[in-house]
Amino acid sequence: MDAEADRALRQLLRHTTVAALATLHQGEPAVSMVPYALLPDGRFVIHVSRLATHTQDMLAHTQVSLLVTAPVDVADTPLALPRVSVQGLASVCPPEAADHAAARAAYLARRPEAEELFGFGDFSLFLITPLSLRYVAGFGRAYAVTAGQYAALLRETG
Amino acid sequence: MDAEADRALRQLLRHTTVAALATLHQGEPAVSMVPYALLPDGRFVIHVSRLATHTQDMLAHTQVSLLVTAPVDVADTPLALPRVSVQGLASVCPPEAADHAAARAAYLARRPEAEELFGFGDFSLFLITPLSLRYVAGFGRAYAVTAGQYAALLRETG
């Protein structure tokens, strides 16, 4: 990817509100919506209820996939919509974890209205560490992005 | 669900442009974006390239999941966004299939710009038959929808 594609991927990830989270549910793929935030190192932060199926799925099987898609009005046709699919590993981030304060702060910076949910006993933070990504910048413009390339491009601003 | 929720689910499905498609990829969940259309009976129509990973995944393992999410500006907060997760079975719909003409017409009615892709040898129509759905109408308002209930509510207009 060139610097322009790197920048566009950063903007897509930093400005989008929700992702589609695919988990393995009893051996089958299952997809649901999750609001997310990013840690500075590019890990995804989500805040989910233990009562939700996707949370139980992540506890039983840690590999997941996330899709972040630009708003439909960004492109003339759906196949030109910028989007990124992420393969990653999910892990719970309990209050005693070293990353918890940073994850909570990152999440609440994006979703201040979620603060009251932190008082609910069934909600937990999870971190999703990207293993590989596939970024589609537009029609026919797809890039494979390694975890190392992703971490490097996330360190830039703008 | 009441008539108002039925109507809102119909509108969500009929007016949204793209879905997140989760497939089983080498035993792991993988999610990608697909434009879609609906047949009158509620089956999803997608048009995908055999060169794409999700297409190979569907050929190898037919159970998939789709997520259709309302645009983020529909709700004040992401957790209130209307969305529906569908568990379904995917099958290729070749030109000689009885459903092909209807599927092609439904798809092109929604995505007229895709017509040229029908001339590409690697693109095929797939149908996804819903087995069950989970509709979230807003924060804390979730409904389990059976295939039978779904077919019935799709028969209504408006």
Written description of the protein model:
The structure is a homodimer. Chain A has about 160 residues and is α+β, with helices and mostly antiparallel strands. The first copy, chain A, has a single domain (about 5-155), classed as Pnp Oxidase, Chain A, CATH 2.30.110.10. Chain A is built from 4 helices and 8 strands, in the order H-E-E-E-E-H-E-E-H-E-E-H. Chain A has helices at about 5-15, 55-60, 100-110, 145-155; strands at about 20-25, 30-35, 35-40, 45-50, 65-70, 85-95, 125-140, 140-145. In chain A, strands 1, 2, 3, 4, 5, 6, 7 and 8 form an 8-stranded antiparallel sheet that branches. The longest helix of chain A has 13 residues, at about 5-15. The model of chain A has no long low-confidence stretch (mean pLDDT about 95). The interface of A and B includes residues 66 and 85 of A.
